[in-house]
Write a structure and sequence with these properties.
- The protein is an alpha/beta fold.
- Helices cover about 40% and strands about 15% of the residues.
- The chain has a seven-stranded parallel beta sheet, sandwiched between helices.
- Helix 3 packs parallel to helix 4.
Length: about 270
């Protein structure tokens, strides 16, 4: 049992690793003894996170990476292998939305710019596919390893106002299942691919969509979400850690191709 949830000494690459969710996962996994590689376009935030992590014993590096450019991902992956000798896990935590792909009183769906929709689609879907191709090839050669994608509640139940994000995350869930089958059948049954689907977490991107910037009170949308979440609160990034450790550890050795909701019961509640 002591080794069942062990991630000690695993080399874990986290794209979007300097973001709200990615950085909390990096902190937790580093604290459990994993070797962490933070891949993020925000070089300053990545470097600051590494400095923070190194206040405790362990190994972590930060690499400026554009997850929409194969050469950038490949250069980062080479650096990780040169530093640590292998890659055991890839967490695709890069993603996000775009204000101009969010409908509302000032923007009809019919007027959403193609460029904004494409940006959200590329960031979330291609931003998962491309690292899975580049780093997945390394994992395939090793014939063992884990890829963990970040889907969303929007993949289960698309929310109003965010059509591009909902569609992209639904594609991430579908891709997760496809890739799990492909890698297990074509390369090694010791390669597993899963995803988590976070419920509603306050992030820099949605904070003032769900709470009033001046008062801190819930907006109408925020109240609707809380009313439909049986546990009655937004998620905290730390709420993801247990599920992530489970999916990266031997405890889930016979689990692949699943999308696990971490949502406070949102997906189970009919609203009645």
């Amino acid at each position: 049992m002591n080794n069942l949830f062990d991630v000690n000494d695993q080399v874990i690459v986290i794209t979007g690793g300097a973001g709200v969710l990615g950085s909390d996962l990096a902190r937790a996994l580093y604290g459990l003894g994993a070797k962490i590689a933070i891949l993020d376009l925000n070089e300053i935030a990545g470097d600051e996170l590494v400095v923070e992590l190194h206040k405790k014993p362990g190994q972590a590096i930060s690499l400026k990476t554009n997850i929409l450019e194969e050469d950038s991902i490949a250069a980062a992956a080479d650096e990780v292998v040169n530093r640590f000798g292998r890659i055991d896990c890839l967490i695709n935590a890069g993603g996000g939305n775009h204000p101009k792909a969010t409908t509302g009183p000032d923007l009809s769906f019919f007027d959403v710019p193609k460029e904004a929709f494409q940006f959200v689609s590329d960031l979330n879907l291609l931003g998962t596919v491309l690292p899975s191709q580049v780093i997945g090839k390394i994992i395939a050669k090793q014939e063992s390893g884990i890829i963990l994608n970040i889907s969303s509640m929007n993949a289960f139940r698309p929310l109003t106002r965010i059509p591009a994000y909902s569609a992209a995350k639904a594609a991430v869930s579908n891709f997760t299942q496809w890739l799990a089958v492909h890698l297990a059948q074509e390369y090694s049954p010791k390669i597993r691919v899963n995803a988590i689907a976070p419920g509603f977490f306050l992030t820099n991107q949605n904070r003032f969509l769900l709470t009033d910037e001046k008062t801190g009170e819930l907006t109408t949308r925020g109240k609707q979400i809380i009313d439909h979440t049986p546990q009655g609160r937004f998620g905290d990034p730390e709420d993801l850690i247990g599920t992530v450790v489970w999916l990266l550890s031997p405890a889930s050795i016979f689990i692949t191709g699943v999308v696990v909701p971490v949502d406070g019961g949102f997906s189970a509640f009919s609203g009645v």
